[in-house]
Structures are given as C-alpha cells and as structure tokens.
Amino acid sequence: MSQSAPNAPNNSTASRVQAGLKKRYAQERRFRFYGVLAITLSLLFLSFLFFNISSKGYTAFQQTFIQIDVHFDENKIDPDGTRDSETLSSANYGGLIKSSLRSIFPDVKKRKDKKKLYKLLSPGATFQLREMVMNNPDLIGTTARIWVPADDDYDMLMKGHIDRTLPENERRLKDQDIAWFDHLIESNAVEKRFNLTFFTAGDSREPELAGIWGALVGSLLTLFITLIICFPLGVATAVYLEEFAPQNRWTDLIEVNINNLAAVPSIIFGLLGLAIFINVFHLPRSAPILGGLVLALMTLPTIIIASRTALKSVPPSIRQASLGIGASKMQTVMFHVLPLAMPGMLTGTIIGMAQALGETAPLLMIGMVAFIVDIPAGVTDPATVLPVQIFLWADSPERAFVEKTSAAIMVLLAFLIAMNSLAIFLRKRFEKRW
Amino acid sequence: MLKKIALTSLVSITLLGTSQTFAARDYVTIVGSSTVYPFATVAAEQFSKTSKFKTPKVEATGSGGGLKLFCASVGIKSPDITNASRRIKQSEVDMCSKNGVKEIVEVKIGYDGIAVANSKKSKPFDLTLQEVFLALAKEVPDPKGNEVLVPNPYKKWSDINKKLPDTKIEVLGPPPTSGTRDAFVELAMEGGCKTFPWIKAIKKQDKNRYKSICHTIREDGPYIEVGENDNLIVKKLEANPNALGIFGYSFLDQNTDKVQGARINGVTPEFEAIAEGDYPISRPLYFYLKKAHVGKIVGLKEFLAEFTSDKAWGEEGYLVDKGMIPMPEAEREKFASDVKSLKKFSFE
Fold first, then answer.
1. What CATH number does residue B117 fall under?
2. How sure is the predictor about A311, in pLDDT bands with cuts at 50, 70 and 90?
3. Structural domain boundaries of chain A?
C-alpha cells in the first residue's frame, strides 16, 4: 500500500494515511519498547534478588569439619564393661573430645586457654560420638580418626566472613584461636564438606547443627492438611455454585463474600484460627493440623474462584450435547464438565498452595513461630514451617545464621518454583482449547 | 464421588485423631520474651540432647503476650513456663489467680545489658543518662533553666552538649511492644530524667505525671522505630554512620567488628561491667513457672534442673557463651533453691 500511494497523489484518504503512517509506526515501536523495558526491569530486580540471596547463601551448603583422633577409652565410657545402653548414653563423651584436642595441642596448659581450645569444635561433636558408640559398641577400646563439625565462629573464619586483618579486639576470634586453627589447616585436618546436617536436622541454636528438615516436614504436613480440606471443599463449592445453584440474591451474596474473602489480609485468618480452633475447639497450639486449617481458610477463596473460572471456560455445547443424549445433570457434570475443568482447577489449587507455603502472618497467632528441634512425626506434633524458620534465623544474633537464612530462602524458592512449574506443566499438558 | 467421600472421611479421621492424641503432652511448652528466647532455646536444646526427654517447645511471644497465655488457665493446654525480660506486674498476678493459676514460682536467670551503639566508621559516643533523656524525651526541661517543660527543641547532639558531635540526633530503637524498649525507657530515660531534682520531686506528688514525663519518647523524628529485629538495627547502623541504635548486649557481642557501644555515664558496655552492675542500662531476666504443672508434665522437673544448673547459667555456662550475663553465686544459689522447693511467688 505504501508503494501505491505515491502513484495516486489525488487519493486524499491514502495520502492522509500516508502522512500519519510514520507517526503510527513510531508509536508502535515506542509501545513495544516500553513493554521490553518493563520486562527487563523486572527481570533485573528478580536477578538482583536471586544473586543477592544465592551469593550470601551458597556457602551454607558447605560446612567446615575438623579431623581428630578419638580414643574410645573403655575406662571413661563403660568402666564396668556392662555395655548397658543407659551407661553408654550418659558417658562423658565431651571428655573424650577434650583429651583428643589436648593431644593435638599439648602446649596448652592454662585452664582458661584450654576452655578456649575446646571451643574449636561444635558441641555437636559430643553427640556425634555418643551416637557412634550407641550404634556400634564395638568401637569402645579402639581409636578412630573422625571428622567432626567445627564451631560456627571457625566456620565463618574458614569461609572468609571474619576479617583476619582487623585489630584483635574487634574480632570474635583472637590471634591465639586463629593460630590454633591455622595449625590444624596446615596439618590437613580441616576440610569444607557438603553440609548434610542442613538437610537432615531440625532447628538448633548452634548454627553448625541447624537444619531445615524440621521446618520442611512441618510445611509439608501443614500443606497436606490444607490440601485435603481445601481441594474437595473448594471444588464442591465451585461446582455447586456454577452448575446447580439458582441465580438469586443469595448466591450473589455468597459470590460477593467469596471474592471479598480472597482479599482479606492473612493475619485476620490467624486471629480467626486463634479464636475458633484454639479457644473453642481446643486444638493443640503450634501443630500442623491447626496451621493447615487456618491456611485452608485462607486458600479456599482462591481455589473456589479458580475452579469457577475453569468450569466457566468449558463450552456450553459440551453440556448441551451430554444432556441431549439423555445424561442427567449430575452425569453431565461428573463425566464431562469436571474432567475438562480439572486442569484449570488443579492449577488454581497449586497456586493457592504455593501461596500458603509462603505464608507466615496467620501462623504468628497460633504459635507456629516457635523453636522446635524435634522433627514433627504427625500433624499434632509441634512444628514450624519454612518461612517461619527463615524469620527466626534472620533474628538470631550469631553471624553464621546469616548464610543459613539465605540458604533457607533458596530452599523455599526452589519449592515455590517447583510448584509453579508443576502448575504450568499441568495446564500445558491437559488443557483443551476450543 | 467415591473419591470425595474418601477424602471427607480422611479429614474427619484426622480431626478425631487429634482430639485423642491431645489428651497427653510429653514435652514442656515455654512462651514469652524474645530477649530470653535465645537463652531458653539453648537450654531446651541442651536438655533434649543430654536427656531422654523431648525438646521443650519455645515460642517467642513477647513478655506481655507470654504472661497472658501463661495466666489463661492451668492444664496441659496452657504453657508451663513463661519467660520475661521484666518482672511480673501486680495486675498480671491478679489475672493469673483469677484464672486458677494460683501458685507461680519466680526464677531470675541472669542479666542482659542494653547497648546504645553506633557504627565503627564514626567515633564512639560518650553519653550520660541525662543526655540520653534530653535527646529522646518528648518534653524536656527548659534549656534556659526554668523549671518548666518544653517540647524537645534539640535537633543535634551538639545542642545538648558542646562536646558531643555536630550531627543530627538519629536513634534507631525497638517499638513499644518490645521488652527491650520497656527496659530502656525505665533504666535509661527515667535514669536521666530523675537527675533533674525538680522532676524527681514530682514523683512524690503525682506518680503518673512523673511517669509520663520520664517515659514518653519523642515522636518528631529523631527516634526511629525499627521493629523487634536487632540484626536489622545493626545493618542499618552500618549503612548510616551518624545514627545510634538500641539493642541487646548479645548482638553487640556478636558484631564487634561492625558496631561499638557508647560509654554510658563513663562505663563501656562490656561483659565485666554489666556483670558487676556498673553499666547503668542492664536488666534482670526471669522465667515464671506454674507450680501445678510440676510432676504432671513429663520432663518439666528435669528441665528446671538443667536450666538452673551451673553448667547452664553459671559463670562459665553455655548461656553465658550466648551472651547472657550471669548472676552472682549467692543469687544463683537462692533461685536454684527456690526452684527446688517451688517457693510460691509474692511481691516482697
């Protein structure tokens, strides 16, 4: 058209279009540029966030270990030779650790210096020895070379978070401490290893012993309760409202309320949980069952709305065809409409679950913000969840918890990304287009 | 349809299961102050690792919130212990006894210092309590020397005392819900406030007015509330070398490479000075115990023995490693024996 325009100068419409064409192209280019700019900016923010978190957190996946020779002295562990589990469990394993440290540094004589020397190793080393002996009493009387976790301060030194060049009184570790540690490094008794504890342990006040597993199990149990309550309730509500309910003032009112609930701040659900589930039904505080119920209330509106949208997108011709060949209303819904709407419903549910996974505010009110070491074994055990664990670690004074916090955020993000990609996958795989 | 029935029955089974297993509780529950939380959690963890009992559950609800939960009822549903960074109030004792919590045991566990600190990038501050009061109170005595109160006119530290730096007054501190704030107001603000004899004289005539003069922090900008996260305050001090921050001693101890404590009345916030009682802004930490629960809750008695043992709260105990300031030996013995005999609390 632009080629034919110069040949027909008299055509006034074409020339008007011609005149404005450049401007329109420019406008379109500008519009597209704004779009690209917006995406670039948000990607930039996102990558900054990821970079910031992972650059701080990746070191938490490694842990400094120190090698020591431990002599499992029979006289100290089990002097009577009974091998009785009570004796074995209450033996003084700390003493064994101390004596092996003393044999590495025989020059340390003063009481005060010795006390500092013992702080090279994590208090977890004692428990590690205990567990080894409990599992294998044959160790008693032998000498073993084992790796035990270093104390968090030395871990920080190893990872470069403690500046050796600072004046001595501004460092957590004094010159003497660093000299001991360097001696160990020179004799190849220090190693950074994969931090398995982080993925298998519950919370701890010693950063080198703290793990995410307890919070992860808590999150999974909580989400399980949320899911088994939310999904059937949400889908049933949506199906009834969309397929069976008459259109009248009552259903309108319900619809307005559901939409309204979806926008209520989550802390309100926490207060509701406190008032109803704890004070009236006497559910145990801090338990996943309680957290799950509260989060179910919060997620329910999201699932109902998503499910209704999914049902609405099933074309009426499907229903008419089914009814036309003599199926009942219920058969139509169960065998034709629901299967077609299911991918959309699942997507909505997964997104609602992901939202519940990242929620802390409602859990504040029902006691899930707590220090819990034991891994929850059921829905009534006290538990905490991933975002709460992040909050608690961020508030801890020990420097080593900074990297643990970022690492926990990475684990949470990984879960969120996995859940959201599952939602996208389901939609792509099962979605029908008409 | 069948699936749905299965799911619903699953829900009801889980719900039923709950009400049954809930009949017994085999772990100790602790609520209360976020200042005591780091210490209570360490004791809980040590206890579980060295005994056959489950780890006590520790919730950080704040001192006031903890006492409210603690006093709500007696029985396995209510917490056994509440931590507090201040002493229990008469009103709270009344609330307790109204709800059937008649016998409580008070245990002081140690002390905590409150540091006023700034970034290492600038010079350390050297303040008196009076200067702290003048910098942060809503109303201060007339700078001209009249015995009247005027809205706080000070904008810069040098306005208060020529020796102080010529920078804007900027103090980051905890919000009113915090026990640290309560203690700071009571010890530092009131401590500086009563250095004015005529204000001190008001206390005898009108206690409420005295309190409102001494305890009200200014709201015109120089005092900035930063939430109850002490780590955040440390981070903000690093970014803003002119600001001062108020937080617990344990955070100062962990961040000596980034921040430095101001000298208060000539005393630096250091372990020895706080333990000796020389440092003026330090407070006792407590926990309160329900006598009726001892012997009923599995492991409670043993946990109390752990917490009050010398390897925990003694001068070289693990609580001290975490930044708590221990009590003198005589005091430790007194409270340990109070716990053993479950001495009923009363205001002396």
1. 3.40.190.10
2. very high
3. 5-58, 62-200, 213-430
Residue B21, pLDDT above cutoff 50: no
**pTM (2 decimals)?**
0.81
Interface test with B, best of A205, A240, A346, A406 (most B CBs within 10 A): A205
Alpha helices in A206-247 (DSSP H): 213-239
Closest CA to A348 of A244, A265, A231, A262: A231
Is A93 part of the contact surface with chain B (CB cutoff 8 Å)?
no
Chain segment A391-417, per-residue pLDDT in tens: 999 888 888 898 999 999 999 999 999
The answer, yes or no, to whether residue B1 has pLDDT greater than 60, is: no
In tens, the pLDDT along B128-162 reads: 999 999 999 988 888 887 888 888 889 889 888 88
Query: B4, A378: Cβ pair inside 8 Å?
Result: no
Q: Residue B165's domain spans which residues? A: 113-282
The predicted structure's pLDDT at residue B311: 86
- Tokens representing A102 are 């003393």
In the predicted structure, residue B115 carries a pLDDT above the cut 60 = yes
Q: Give yes or no for a contact between B45 and A204, defined as CB atoms under 8 angstroms apart.
A: yes
Enumerate the residues of chain B whose CB falls inside 8 A of the CB of residue A115.
Answer: 316
Closest to B110 (Cα-Cα) out of B33, B54, B174: B33
Clarify whether residues B128 and B206 are in a common domain.
Answer: yes
The whole-number pLDDT of residue B328 equals: 86
What is the number of alpha carbons within 13 Å of residue A394 lying toward its C-beta? 19
What CATH code is assigned to A213-430?
1.10.3720.10
CB interface of A with B, residues 376-405, below 8 Å: 378-380, 382, 392, 394-399
Structure tokens at A108: 């340390």
- Give me the DSSP letters along A123-164: THHHHHHHHHHHH-GGGTT-EEEEEEEBPHHHHHHHTT-S-T
For residue B11, the model assigns a pLDDT of 54
Do B164 and B207 lie in one domain? The reply is yes
Between chains, do A370 and B60 touch, taking CB under 8 Å as contact?
A: yes
Give tens-digit pLDDT for A280-306. Answer: 888 888 899 999 999 999 999 999 999
How many angstroms separate the CA atoms of A260 and A419, rounded?
Answer: 26
Contact (Cβ atoms closer than 8 angstroms) between residue A129 and residue A93: yes
- Tell me: do B153 and B250 sit in the same domain: yes
